[in-house]
Design a protein that fits this description.
Keywords: Membrane, Transmembrane, Transmembrane helix. The protein is 55% helix and 6% strand. It contains 13 helices and eight strands.
Length: 419
């Protein structure tokens, strides 16, 4: 089947694959050498690595078409991984889920026809909203490997063939499930972006969103359309359609590798020295660790979700002053409504957490113009549900050296007054 494509197209695909892999690995190498913001660059390295995975798997599927289903399966699992890391990167930029909830407290997403919310009441931007966005992406990350395993089993039993829309084959039904899952994940990303657009503005999010959507979602729809062309007779058959799809992806990955340099530049992290010095191997090991995905997945689907955990930026294990994780209770649903109604009783404190009128430069944009109007309210799709001035919590962690504190603390006198 490999002879269905002219040899010059295969050579072109090879050159594009080699160029894309070389460019992406160089990009990753520069990030690991300048690994000064580990909490951000961990996700960036994982995202950029999609180019070598996509390019290599597509080229192998092109030259070894009989084994293409296995190469395509690896590529499809990794694209789900990219979606998770991109949303995690966006949340890290704005200070984490807890910081987003506090920043958007009292605001709602207005009904909008292009967001398909025109028939619903305003959507409160609380902890439940952030949770639904993450769950929308995580369902794709979890479902994708399961469907890939099902596909391989059905393929071994002769019940699956790429591009075969016959009701007797499973391709039609798996495509429907994939489409629903893709759509939910994309919709969750769009809602999160619209709600946090102003908070994300300092990080130039538009090209990043465009690249991720183009590589992950458009390549999927591109493959569906190519097989539909084969079904309609514009392409000879499903085998040629599959080869054509893999060839296009090899070429597109060279473009994507160059676009990643612009969207995720390493130079903005060079010489920043924010995260301290790390060896290349230490940076690589940090980027490859999957503990964040495990804990995040458990956290998102646990019943105690609203007990947010704010991780320190050194990820533990660092030498020097001992650091502790801080917990804050982020109310959701009816709890959030109760807090809003009783805001005047708490002043600048809610649940014992002090409110800071200034937010970190790296997490939220600076306000301009009316000081009483937060920047996140500039979006035409956001409305403020309260008349009070919203302020930010200072969500940064405090390094505590407990060596100077006594080992035993005297008990408090709660009898009602001094004796």
């Amino acid at each position: 089947m490999a002879d269905l494509l002219p040899i010059y197209l295969i050579i072109l695909a090879f050159l594009c694959t080699v160029g894309a892999i070389a460019l992406a690995l160089f990009h990753i190498y520069k990030h690991l050498l300048n690994y000064t913001e580990p909490i951000y660059q961990r996700y960036i390295v994982r995202i950029v690595f999609m180019v070598p995975v996509y390019a290599l798997m597509s080229f192998l599927a092109l030259v070894l078409p009989k084994s293409s289903i296995y190469f395509n399966s690896i590529r499809e699992v990794y694209e789900a991984w990219v979606i998770y890391n991109f949303l995690s990167l966006c949340l890290a930029w704005v200070g984490g889920p807890g910081s987003v909830v506090i920043s958007l407290t009292g605001r709602s997403l207005k009904p909008s026809w292009h967001l398909m919310t025109c028939c619903f009441p305003p959507l409160p931007l609380d902890g439940r909203f952030i949770r639904r966005c993450k769950q929308g992406c995580l369902q794709f990350v979890i479902l994708k490997p399961i469907l890939v395993a099902v596909t391989l089993v059905l393929y071994a039993k002769g019940k699956y063939k790429d591009g075969n829309f016959s009701p007797d084959q499973s391709y039609l039904y798996l495509t429907i499930i994939y489409t629903i899952s893709y759509t939910v994940a994309l919709y969750a990303l769009v809602l999160f972006y619209v709600a946090c657009k102003d908070l994300l503005q300092p990080f130039n999010p538009v090209p990043k969103f465009v690249i991720i959507k183009s590589v992950v979602f458009l390549t999927y729809w591109q493959g569906v359309l190519v097989f539909l062309f084969a079904k309609s007779g514009f392409i000879r058959d499903e085998e040629e359609a599959a080869l054509f799809q893999n060839f296009i992806i090899c070429v597109e990955m060279l473009i994507a590798a160059a676009a990643h340099f612009y969207a995720f530049p390493y130079k903005e992290y060079a010489e920043a020295n924010v995260g301290g010095a790390r060896s290349f191997s230490g940076s690589l090991a940090h980027a490859l660790m999957l503990n964040d995905f495990y804990h995040d997945t458990v956290h998102q689907f646990a019943p105690t979700y609203h007990d947010y955990v704010l991780y320190n930026h050194n990820d533990g294990g660092e030498e020097g002053t001992r650091k502790y994780r801080a917990r804050t209770f982020v109310p959701t649903g009816q709890e959030m409504d109760a807090v809003r109604k009783n805001k005047h009783m708490f002043g600048n404190k809610i649940d014992g957490v002090s409110v800071s009128s200034q937010s970190s430069e790296t997490s939220t944009p600076k306000t301009s113009g009316d000081p009483a109007r937060p920047e996140s309210m500039k979006s035409s799709l956001l409305v403020d549900a309260s008349d009070s001035v919203s302020t930010m919590y200072d969500m940064s962690l405090i390094d505590i050296d407990i060596s100077s504190y006594p080992s035993k603390v005297p008990s408090a006198n709660i009898s009602g007054g001094p004796k």
